[in-house]
Design goal:
By secondary structure, the protein is mainly alpha-helical. It has 18 helices and 8 strands. Helices cover 44% and strands 5% of the residues. β7 and β8 form a beta hairpin. The longest helix has 38 residues.
Length: 461
């Protein structure tokens, strides 16, 4: 009897021990999945409200129209709660939903195809067991015809989707390989920083050389010393990814500020160093390899004498100087020098004012800047049409102010027009693909009608 009791007790202890070990294993797997979801910055697109993480509903601007991010919580009615792990993997790597419909590549499945089976497994565990289900439907994406036909993505994928998996380079260090895996996979850096071709595919021959992303411009992040980050040290790149700011060089705004806030600042030192190591090895593909770097242009100065002592309604010889004084100087300084601690950056030696593409300067004025890091909140109010805009500047005023800043503190070879401001205000350049596709469909229909008429005419004869 006593022996039986001892055996039962031993069996119970073993069961409890195995259960505890299994629970610890599950917790570790979910924690790993959470870290990968942060590295992939899933929240930036799939969270419209901080009170409902991953519940979708956010409109993602694209050159072919707004794409609505879906609910990826484990809700069985509105999310991915009924997805098997294989269906989850297919969505991440192949852009195919559980119902067989194709996703648009605004969801960076072309990058996530790199993710390993183990990482997919961890992500699945996190989203199914570590995320709160939100039973809330999202609006549908309505792209113009014929891009609203999702099956067309089947042909796009056949042309541009690479085979899943990641193959390390044995000639490189473990850190370099980890950096490449993150950059090309979870962090999907090329999705924004690589220019797109006619069919909206990434132009891999020009990887990381800069691209327009809605209203903002994702700059060249190759080793180019002029237009890229070739003059940055490894530690400077790590600092920028951790804080979103590098004094005298760059500040994160727009979608990059979101990436800093939600993703990069939360990565480990080892992973940020690995990313920096890999990015510094990315070869330069651009022709702009001479002249001053985009972090070294401009000098301090002002033109207050142009309007000092005059009434605001009185015409002045330098409207740009007056706009600058009334809207910018209180934070950035009367000479554009910023503050000593760099909280308010200088406008010279600043990538936003020295870039050949003026989108970021225009977008910063129109939409402002907001970035949250461990160092605190960074906020610049918008000057566009938003309810919280400090002043509502029209397109001509933004163009005048931009040109004054560029010619005084930045790239004097760049000029901004009111039409450019209107385009950035509206969400950035649109793609001719929609119009051409519609013309193509119309042409095909017209050709079919002509053939039908010809066949009827032949039959009557």
């Amino acid at each position: 009897m006593m022996l039986k009791f001892k055996l039962n007790a031993l069996a119970l202890m073993l069961a409890l021990g195995c259960g505890a070990a299994h629970a610890a294993s599950d917790d570790a797997l979910i924690k790993k999945g959470e870290y990968l979801a942060v590295a992939a910055d899933c929240t930036a697109c799939h969270t419209a409200s901080s009170t409902q993480p991953f519940a979708g509903g956010k409109a993602i601007a694209s050159p072919v129209g707004a794409i609505i991010a879906t609910n990826i919580t484990p809700s069985k009615t509105d999310g991915i709660g009924d997805y098997s792990e294989q269906q989850f993997a297919d969505a991440l790597r192949k852009g195919i939903r559980a119902d067989g419909a194709h996703l648009y590549p605004a969801m960076p499945y072309t990058a996530y195809a790199t993710l390993t089976d183990d990482d997919i497994h961890a992500l699945y565990a996190y989203f199914m067991s570590g995320v709160q289900a939100v039973d809330h439907p999202t609006a549908q994406t309505h792209l113009p015809f014929p891009l609203n036909l999702r099956f067309s993505m089947m042909f796009w994928n056949a042309l541009f989707l690479k085979a899943p998996g990641y193959q390390p380079d044995a000639a490189q260090t473990a850190s370099w390989n980890r950096g490449r895996y993150l950059v090309e996979g979870a962090a999907h850096c090329s999705t924004c920083h690589t220019p797109r071709g006619f069919l909206m595919q990434e132009k891999t021959a020009d990887a990381f050389t800069g691209a327009q992303v809605g209203s903002w411009y994702a700059p060249n992040i190759t080793a180019n010393p002029v237009s890229g980050i070739g003059q940055w040290s490894q530690q400077e790149l790590v600092t920028y990814l951790r804080t979103g700011r590098l004094a005298g060089k760059a500040q994160a705004a727009g979608s990059m500020a979101e990436a800093i806030t939600h993703s990069f600042q939360h990565l480990s030192d080892a992973d940020l160093t690995a990313i920096a190591e890999y990015m510094q090895s990315v070869p330069d593909h651009t022709a702009f390899a001479s002249g001053p770097a985009r972090f070294t242009q401009g000098t301090p100065g002002n033109n207050l004498v142009a309007f000092r002592g005059q009434a605001f309604t009185q015409p002045v010889s330098d409207e740009g100087a007056r706009l600058f004084s009334g809207n910018c100087a209180s934070c950035h300084g009367s000479s554009g020098q910023g503050t000593k601690d760099g909280f308010y950056p200088s406008l010279f030696h600043n990538s936003a004012t020295a870039e050949r593409n003026s989108s970021n300067l225009i977008a910063t004025i129109l939409f402002g800047v907001e970035r949250d890091t461990a160092q605190g909140n960074v906020f610049m109010p918008p000057f566009g049409a938003q309810p919280n805009a400090l002043n509502h500047l029209n397109d001509q005023q933004v163009a005048t102010l931009s040109n004054w800043i560029l010619h005084r503190y930045g790239n004097q070879g760049v000029t901004v027009s009111p039409e450019q401001v209107a385009e950035i205000r509206a969400g950035g350049p649109s793609s001719p693909l929609v119009l051409l596709a519609q013309f193509g469909v119309a042409g095909a229909v017209l050709a079919a009608i002509i053939v039908l008429i010809w066949l009827l005419w032949r039959r009557k004869r």
